Amino acid sequence: MKLSSVGCVYVRVKCNDDDTIGDLKKLVAAQTGTRADKIRIQKWYTIYKDHITLKDYEIHDGMGLELYYN
């Protein structure tokens, strides 16, 4: 999965369909050195909630998401 942040920094992480958005944030935090609780992941105007799985949001491999720092 590829995530882009404001400022066009791209991050690729390996995750499963049953991982939650919170798990995804932890993977991104490990790569970027940012605390997971300061990361916001969204697509357009939809902010993804930590307890929902990637499968429930229909997020799949190759999909680009937006990464913001709070």
UniProtKB/TrEMBL annotation:
InterPro entries listed in its UniProt record: Hub1/Ubl5, Ubiquitin-like_dom, Ubiquitin-like_domsf
**Which keywords, in A-to-Z order, does the entry hold?**
Ubl conjugation pathway
Q: What is this protein called?
A: Ubiquitin-like domain-containing protein
Instruction: Give a yes or no for keyword Zinc-finger in this entry.
Output: no
* Record has Transport as a keyword: no
Q: What is the lineage of its organism?
A: Eukaryota, Viridiplantae, Streptophyta, Embryophyta, Tracheophyta
Q: Which Pfam families did the record assign?
A: ubiquitin (PF00240)
Residue ranges of domain Ubiquitin-like in the record: 13-68
